Input
Amino acid sequence: MLTTKVKKRAYLLAATLTVSVVAIFFILKSLSSNILYFKSPTEIKNSNDTNFNKKIRVGGMVKKNSLEIDSEEIKFTITDFENEIMVSYSGTVPNLFTEEKGVVAEGKLQDKKFFIADRILAKHDENYMPPELKKIMKENVK
Amino acid sequence: MLSNLGNIILFSSVFLSLTLIFFSFKEINSTGEIISKKIYKISLIQSTLILFCFFTLISAFIISDFSLIAVYQNSHSAKPLFYKISGTWGNHEGSLMLWVIILTVFSFLFLIINKSHPKNYRLYTLIFQNILILGFLFFILFNSNPFSAVKPLPAEGLGLNPILQDPALAIHPPLLYLGFVGSSIYFSAAMASLITNYSNKFFALSIKNWVLISWSFQTFGILVGSIWAYYELGWGGFWFWDPVENASLLPWFAMTALFHSLLVLEKRNLLYFWVIILCLITFILSVMGTFLVRSGILNSVHTFASDPSRGLYILFFLSILIFSSIFLIFKKYKKNDYSINSNSKETFVLINNWFMMFYLLTVLIGTLYPIFTDALSNNKISVGPPFYNAVIFPIVILFLFFMAIGPKTKWIKNNFNNLKSFIVILFFSIVINLLITFFFKSYTILSNLIIISSLFLIISSLLDLKQILIRGKFDLARVISHLSFGFLIFFIGLNHNFSIEKDFNIKVGETKSFEDYQIELKNLEIKDHQNYKAIIGNLSINDLVNGEIKTLKPEIRIYDKPKTLTYEAAIKTNFLKDIYITMSNIDRSEFYNIKFQKKPLMIWIWISVICLAFGGFLRTFQNAKNS
Output
């Protein structure tokens, strides 16, 4: 026979364990549905399983002479010097956003050539470049 | 000259630390219960020297002595004096000096304040603390020495990153460091307590105030950082779940769990090993945060001063901390008989800890996950606000209810004879929430639940406050902190649901209308300042509902040393709302990008956090007075 004290502790332990397992499951599940993948225009072109409903980040350079501005939105082209993608965006633009500089845009793909961004990532100084971008630039710029 | 002086002091500090460790070991083996005067003196000299070293560095910044690498890289002779001084700790090398100062000064204070505790426990704490000091002194000397000489002598410095030239960011690092570097002292004390088997409630008493003080400063530090991000980064938010912000939040969760469990150890002599684990992980998380921020391993928008070689050293130091902690815990672990009644205050404290660990784990996983996927699958990913919002906010609802009920329970065995009052409070919370949705605006079910639960905590804490005023029965510090936390969530909830945001591009002279507002960019002014040039937008905001016309003047600042641009948001604050505008030029065209935001009750979010931290200070003060 188990004493009531032991029983009580077993219950408490079981409850704590269950709650913890559920909690961790919950964390991981939310994580998998909320991560943002970072892609370059070339990666987007080459991928076969593009999900158009999931947010992603696209990074590269703002192409020269591609910037168009009107009162509602900004359009520009992101290039990694091999492939490019058109971006349409309405929202705050970082001050250091300019043609021929690195940019990271967050949003959804409409098709493999057109991207609607809802956020353009700010940079703190002009020398800063996100590590992902550095990699793309290294691979493609000789 | 200052370079040599600084180096000499740093080397003498290493020598003093070694001497302290040596003499402390010698005294541990000697008989007698009193620590000799010698040790006090060395510890005092050590603290004084380190402070003197820091003042040497500050004076180098003030006189712009560019022969020092830290000054050369982070200062400029044309910078205002205030930012010359704050530049001392606004960079990697200088901020490490701040680390060492807090480590040494806390070590000395812990030694002189805890005289009533056993000799060996105090000596071991001193030894461990000095090992930490040595670790950081070596880091400074061999990797990040602010006193390293630059040859040939540069004529001018490179300047401080302009977004760091800000009053809030001048006080942000010292506050935050007092918090998370302050946690070193209970890391050392926990290690000492394991070695000397000093595991009763008196151990809890010896570290209680240190935990509270570091928690309060940590809270303040996080607040000041948030306020800065709010007006300086130009996004209008105050929390972005950025890895750097998360790094400051992780130790905060651990500290919060810790001072709640300490109550159980103090009052009931239970949970000793759990308290030890929390002491250890608080400091480990602090060092881990430093590693994440300084190594540049994480892609954060505010990674300053990152360098892989620094990361390697901190990682090495971090592994030593983790392995030695785990080793000591396993070596000393004893099975305790925990007989906790499931309906008691002890259980409620454990529930608090469970929540804190849940939040900690969530933020930890979210922060570290990108590093692992990058290393394992070469997939570049990031985890953003949607993840944290999805996980944390639903859980906050339950947490707030427990936070209201917990303090009203009794130690050992509780009975819920106040169940009726809880139902009444819940009823009023629901009614108030309904009134808000009815008269102002309806919002999602989740928001409804969050606001109801925060109201539950607020009302029940207000009733406690009434009890204090009548009978002086409950403790004031706890009520203030719990009440402020309730208000914090309440105001965040309202702010989130009632905010208005609008982005648009506009030329000078144009007017933009939307919802109840009409905004005109009248003209631009250009002003020259000591260290930057400002383009000031003259915007008139016409509130069509009450006919109020306000003028706001956001700026674009062009800094020369180093060359960069920053936003300066224009914010009109009153007790009801903030009107917030930032302006940026798009690629030197005639278009200006305007972000307009109405943020209701913004100032109350800041005030709630100030009161939250104040609760911690008040409790420390009360403890000190009682003992």
